[in-house]
Each structure stands twice: as structure tokens, then as C-alpha cells.
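Good morning C.,

I know you're traveling, so I'll keep this short. The sequence:
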Amino acid sequence: MDDPPLALPFQPPVEPMLAATGSIPVGEGWLYEPKWDGFRCLAYFDGDRVYLQSRDSRPLGRYFPEVEDALRDLLPGPMVLDGEIVLITEDGLDFGLLQHRLHPAESRVRKLSLETPAAFVAFDLLAEGDTDLRGEPFRERHRRLQDALPANRPPVFRTPWTTEEVLAVDWFERFEGAGFDGVIAKRLDEAYQPGVRSMVKVKHVRTADCVVGGFRWAKNGEGVSVGSLLLGLYDEHGVLHHVGHTSSFKAAEKRELAERLAPLVTEDDSGGFGRGRTPGTPSRWTSGAEASWVRVKPELVCEVAFDHLQGDRFRHGTTFRRWRPDKPPEDCTYDQLDVAVPAELRDLLTGS
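The C-alpha cells, ready to paste straight into the viewer:
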């Protein structure tokens, strides 16, 4: 940062401690937390100034002025917090709306900060006053975090936690979706290790049955090899919307797909992509090369596995699981993606 040094025991940036994917660890000495779906953020407050740092060590404050204001108003004294910036809705967390906040125009950022304000969820304390806590075991950092933030004061929250494996498993099963997509496990005896994947993240893998509404040819394989299937779901009005793609096929399977889909190729958009969102709809995340696709009759259904939803579509590519010849295409609706927000998390998010 180019501003004068903060009155803290260390200066930004500090690499955040990271997590490796695994299963829920068992035994003594673990603490478990819900896995939040937002922007990782280290928040520095020296009693006067707030500095927000992203996971890749860039400043975040200009995009979230309301979070800076909240931390300045609500934190009891100088400290450095590790946490997550999230955007809370009635249905849980919305990563898609959160991404919209990364806008270059300050006027747009200010407008969105009022319309869709973000919140900060703290889960570690790296410094308090003039004391650097990074060398202390997480057990001590966590205890001091509880004392420093004794209650949730929206929009600043303290993450739920437990040391009971049974409850962590229950969370993993019930917190699926709604922005809480797994569990994080941390060793209570570990110091803070910047950049080291010493935590464990246990992520959900969900499945959905989708209609194949089109496809894209493989690179240098037009007419011979399919690169990806374009997936759709029907809304309550029977309109098919593009929700993502799957490309997890071997070379031979891609050639077989070209033969399988050939009889279904059509220019008729009735019942298929056309009335709703289509793969060719421009967006700030798609390039011109991605806009070329081939329409097919919406007759094939496949089951795919996915990790994250972004609004009403898959954030990442999905993994093909199997064909579903037993399922009518019209039964592939958004209803299968609905997930209720667990009561204790709803209480947390509403400040109850």
C-alpha cells in the first residue's frame, strides 16, 4: 500500500492461510466452521483507518466502502481480521451479485453499496492492539476473537464454530447450498501459516438433471468431435434457460457425441434455447469465441455434478455423470436446485 503505515504490528499485504480439499478430519484438536462463499479478505484496522486486502494481496476497499465504514464503526480497537466479504440475501449468500461489485466506476460502486450492501464474516484474529498473534496457536487466536467480537453486529459477523465432529458432519449435510458449500477444519494447535494449505476444506458436490439444448464443437474438430454440451433447465413457465456446460469427455466419447447429436440438430427454437437465456447471450464473462454453438432439439437429459451456483446457473463447468433416458426433459426444472437456509444460519445472517 502507498499510504502511510498503519499503526499495527505488521503491514499489508499478508498472504492468507489456505486450505486443501479433503474429508472431514476426526480426532482431538480440530475446530470446524461453515465454508463461506464470498471474497476472502484480510481486514486491517488501526483505530482510525481500514484497509481491506484480497486473497491475491490487492486492495478491496474501493469496491466495498460500506464494509470499511462498518468495520471502522463496530470494531472495538486496532486489529487484523481474516475473514470473508459476503453478500446476504433472503435465500442465503449470492456470489453473482457480489461479483457485480467489482466495477471500475466509483459512482456505480457507491450505488451498489446502497442497493446490495455486503457484510464481513470474521474467522481468525491475526493481531490485536500492538500484539502480533500469527505465531500463537489457533486455540489462542480463536479465544481472543471471541472476546474481541462478543456478538454479531450486522454487517460484521463472527463465523459459527464447533469442536464436535458430529455437529460438523450435520452442518456439512444441512448447510449445502444457500452459499454455505461445505466445512472448513482447522488445527487448534497451529500457528497462522501464510500461503500454506494447512487447513482442510470439505466441499459439497451436488447433482442436477439437465436438458441438452445445444453443443459446441471441439477445437479443430468441427463436424467430428463435440467439445462441450450446453445444459438447460426449465423455469415455472416452461421456458428453457442455459445454465452451464459440461466438457468432461474423453476424445473417443467426443466423437461418439457428434454422431449421437447429429439427428437432433435444428434451427427451430420452440421448446429449446431461444425464449430464455441462451449460450450466445453476451455477458461480461464470455468472449466472442464462446458465442458459437449448435442448437439441438431438447430431447436428451443428463445428470451432472457441480460445486457452485452463481444465481440461477452453474459458476464452473460441470462433470458429466450419466444419461437419464428415463427422465422427461420437461421435468428438468430449477426446483431441484432449491436449498433452504438452515435456521441457525438464518439467525446469524439476520442478526437474530
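Safe travels,
E.
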